[in-house]
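As a next step, the fold was encoded as tokens, giving this record:
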Amino acid sequence: MDLSQFQFDERGLIPVVVQDWKDGTVLMLGYMNREAIEKTLSSKSVHFWSRSRNRLWEKGETSGHRLVLKDLFLDCDRDAVLVKAEPIGPTCHTGERACFFSKVQPDGTPGPDRTAEAWGGLLERLSETVLERKRHPRAGSYVSSLLAGGRDRILKKVVEEAGEVLLGSKNDKREEVIYEVADLLFHTLIVLGEHEITLRDIYQELAGRMGKSGLRSGGPTGSEP
């Protein structure tokens, strides 16, 4: 295996950022040496070099909480690695999904409570806001008022926004398509919140369709990229 492009440090190590391949959550930071990279690529199970134990180790070798390799990338300077993986169980030894759960306060100190704010991306934050508004309605909140109006009102908005997307596309208006798709995504998140469905549930469904035929009994699903 040719690893000549990897720029290892003087200890023969290279830092590795591990990311959930489904939603982009940064799960952990570790280090690999040549053997760990070779093992990771050949076995498809992520391996690291333990600096404290001074040995090679497979993530989950005792807990069973493995990281299944999906892709491995080198950065522009060839001195850092990004691993996209599917986590089997929590990644952090504390039992949390990811190691980054202490939000730093303005004074530089880590907050006292664990938070999932670092996980996922913009859509996850919006989804969490919708669920928060459902469980704790807020006066003057559009989401709260829409949820209070009932399911039919929510679904009517989704249909309206889908129609706006259609018109924008038919008229070949790029900016209009962007605007209306954003509206459609937002109102779709409200539908998910109404049913207590998270984006991780949707990602799981989409991940299960990867590499499968886009057809199923009864008609096309459009599931295969």
About this structure: The chain has two domains: 1-118, 122-210. The helical segments are 34-43, 122-135, 142-148, 151-170, 174-194, 199-209.
